[in-house]
Amino acid sequence: MNKILVATDFSNCARNAMEYAMELAKVLQVEVCVIHAIGTTEGINNNTYSALYIEDYYNNKRQALKDWANTFTAVESFKDIPVSTVCEVGSVSTVITKYIDANPVEMLVMGTMGSTGITGIFGSNANTMVEKTKTPTLIIPLESKFSMKSVITLATDFESPLSQGDINSLNEIISASKAEKLNVLNIIEGSASWKKNEAGEENLKKMINSTELEFSYINESNPINGIMNFVISNKTDILCLVKRHHNIVYRIFNKSTVNQVMNRSIKAVLILHE
Q: Model's pTM, two decimal places?
């Protein structure tokens, strides 16, 4: 991993996500890029600025972003982490996607409200980015803090294949957190009879070689409840989920397991993609 991209709206949630990303970058010895999107109509119709002075407004926002980023690099423990800033006009999803398409980014970090769910303008964009990008995305609720010896859980159906880039990101998160093991959770829905997926287990062991894997199987009619109960009972710090990129009909008429878990989790959620 070479670069972590952190999206900010200058909120407390974004500050917490930035602190998490800086801690991660320090361990992984990678650079951080902070990105902010200026709304297309922002700064035009307010008491201070008009269309005549819009470029001044944009420049002030770019300077504000640099000043915000500097509050982190001024911290002694973060002073050696390279931090750059990008401030562009457009929607959050458009600005982030454009940057990812043009630059090598191994992980996107975004903050959310946590216990109150993914709400508000910034929170809704976390859901949007999970849908639009295949870059591994780390969602940080306000309550979540980076810690060493993290407990990490991967919820999987053993059927969604991961790209090599996502596997690398997961291995690096495990190594950076110094996790003693990776919990691998498989929810068995609506059936009293089931057995271990030995082929799936062996495949994961080949891909994830940064720690020991411990497999758990839970028979639960509601996979969301099964995952959340496991997260609580095992004191999970980082929950890893695999996002399936369904067709447009599925996305309209069914809310995915990933988005539902994101809405309920007060722990960091790492979204990987099939």
A: 0.85
